[in-house]
Amino acid sequence: MKDLAKKMGVTTGTLTVMVDRLEQQGILHRQVHETDRRSYLIALTEKGQGLFAEHHQYHLRLTEEITATLSPEEQGLFSAGREKIIGQM
To answer: What are residue 29's DSSP bridge partners?
Structure first.
């Protein structure tokens, strides 16, 4: 939870509330880590995986719409910039 909260830029308290809500909705589940009882493993349920796939497809369509009017050179620049941003996360 601590690592995930750090990646998301939220406090562990905020993340705990979010995870509780998503777990109640059947989107994810948490289980105690096998070797470290203080840690939890967070995983998407089948429902959560479906929602993730839908969201991912939305982003792909959005990117296609944004880049459709760009020249091949501009698309390359856009892609390189996007990769640089993602690499810093």
So the answer is: 43
What is the pTM for the complete model shown? Answer: 0.68
Query: What's residue 89's pLDDT?
Result: 65
Neighbours of 67 (CB within 10 A): 15
Q: What is the dihedral sign for C-alpha 78, 7, 40, 47?
A: negative
Query: What is the token pair recorded at 57?
Result: 């497809």
Helices within 1-89 (DSSP H only): 2-8, 12-24, 46-67, 72-87
Burial of 19 (0-12, 13-18, 19+ CB in 10 A): buried
| φ, ψ dihedrals at 30, nearest 5° | -125, 145
Highest mean pLDDT among 29-33, 35-39, 69-73 belongs to: 69-73
